[in-house]
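Hi Y.,

Following your request, here is the sequence exactly as I used it, all 312 residues.
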Amino acid sequence: MAQKKTGKLAFEEYYKALFATDSEYSDFISALRINRPPNLRFDPKNEEKLRELWEAAGLPFKTVSWYPYMLEWPTQVAIGTQLPGFAEHLFYPMSASSLLPVLALDPQKNEYVLDACAAPGGKALLIAEILGESHTLIANDLSRARRDRMKHVFSDYDAKVGVWGMKAELICKKAPEAFDKILLDAPCSSEAHIYNTPAELEKWSINRVIGLKKRQVGLLSGLWHALKPGGTLVYSTCAVTPEEDEWVVGKFLKKRKGEATLVPFTTPQQVPGNPGIPGEYAVEYDTSLVRRVLPHTSGLDPMFVAVFKKAL
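Below is the corresponding structure, written out as tokens. Let me know if you'd prefer a different format.
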């Protein structure tokens, strides 16, 4: 039996086949290599104080064009520098594309919400701020170390969040049909991390993708039983491979035919987003209903988002 290819050449061969032209693939790889600074998301209640600190330091208070509560990293400051307001926990550093799954989830006050694979906690922190005093968010992560770091984040930002440490696919046993909304930001290939981490790139193979997509379907299937009838489940990854995006969506829809439907999600107007990839990876559903953000066309980190609605 032929041995599976591994390493950088295998990675590049697989991903090159996903793009229509060599030029687009080259643009994609170049975009993966970019060391993007984080954006800085802040609670609206902190805006006045944060603005004062930045203006006193001579820094431009420039927000991203499509989300008014997230700052651009100031170009005159080196990445990694401690910026005014950081020590006071007036903002949280995160990728702008990480906002998209939460925008798709659209949490509302008094809804019971689960962030199923929540660490490091940035998305959960935003959800908690939106939910406000209702305190109806559960942030789950299986890793004790990641949970401990996440608890520190919630404490630093005074966010009232319940923290669980379960296998996400088994939450339904503790809380059957309990949640109005569930976010599954699933473990994924995270090509930007792999390509820029030599040790990870050296051991990459298609087997990694195959293992991840099976896990992702399992997570979706288990979490579905924790979702109330009529509820919403958002599936997101920071992967580019359609095996972990469109294929997973199609596989899950087939398993839950008549019970799960896709709800259209489009990225904000200023964010260049693409519909899903049709064809072999997405049989029997309309890929315009899902959204993928690619680094070379958006200037953002990769993101894929699909929104499922559970039948009543």
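The chain has a mean pLDDT of 96.

Thanks again,
Q.
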